[in-house]
Amino acid sequence: MKILINFLIYDSTTCLLRLLLLAELFVHSSTRPAHSSSLCGLFGSMIPQVDMLMSNAKKLHELSNDELSNLASMESRLHGLPNLQHTAAHFNSLKVNESLSQLHVFTQSIKLHIDWLKTAKDNFSLPSQSAEGANTHLLQLSNLINTSLKQIGEEVPQSPALSLPVASTAFDVLRFSVELSEQLQIFSKWSKRVLRHLQRQSHCPRH
C-alpha cells in the first residue's frame, strides 16, 4: 500500500512538472511578436546580399596596393556618404524599427552614389560591370528592407537628396571608384553587423 501511495505521489508530481513546463513554453511562444519568424527570414535573405556587395566593392577599381597608396592622401570629395557609428554602445542601443529605417536611408544613399559612378564610368567608356553588380544587390537589399518595414508597420523613409560632384576626367572617375570601393566595404561590414544584432534581438534561430 505504501509503495502504491509513493508511486501515485511521484506520478502526480511528474505530471504537474510537465504541465508547468508546457505552460512556460506557451507563455514564451505567445509573448514573442508574431512577425519575428518572417523578419528572421528577411534578415537571413539580406545577409547574402551584403556579402555580394562586399565582393563587388573590391572590384570597383583594378588598382594594385602600391597604386592605391598613391591615392590614399587625396582628399575625400564624396560628402553625402553615410556617417556610420561603429561603437559597441551604438550597436547595443539598436532597435529593430529604427535600425531598419536607418539601414534603408543608408542603402539608398550608397545606391545613388553607385548609380552616379556607373554613369560616370560609361561616359568615359570605362568598365562598369562591378558598379552594375553592386547596384543590383543594393536594389535587392533595399526591397528586403522595405518589406521588413511594412511588416512591422513602419513607413518607408524617403530617399535622401544628394549633391554629387562632377567627374570631369577619367582620373576623377578612378579616384571616385577608389573612394566608393572603400566606403562600400565599410558599409557592407557595418550592415552585416547590424543584421546579426537584429537577428539576436529577434531571437532568430541560428543556422
From TrEMBL:
One of its GO terms (biological process) is positive regulation of cell population proliferation. The keyword Signal applies. The keyword Calcium does not apply. Pfam families: IL11. Keywords: Signal. One of its GO terms (molecular function) is cytokine activity. Residues 1-31 form the signal peptide. It comes from the Eukaryota. GO terms for cellular component: cytoplasm. SUPFAM superfamilies: 4-helical cytokines. This is Uncharacterized LOC111233232. It comes from Seriola dumerili (Greater amberjack).
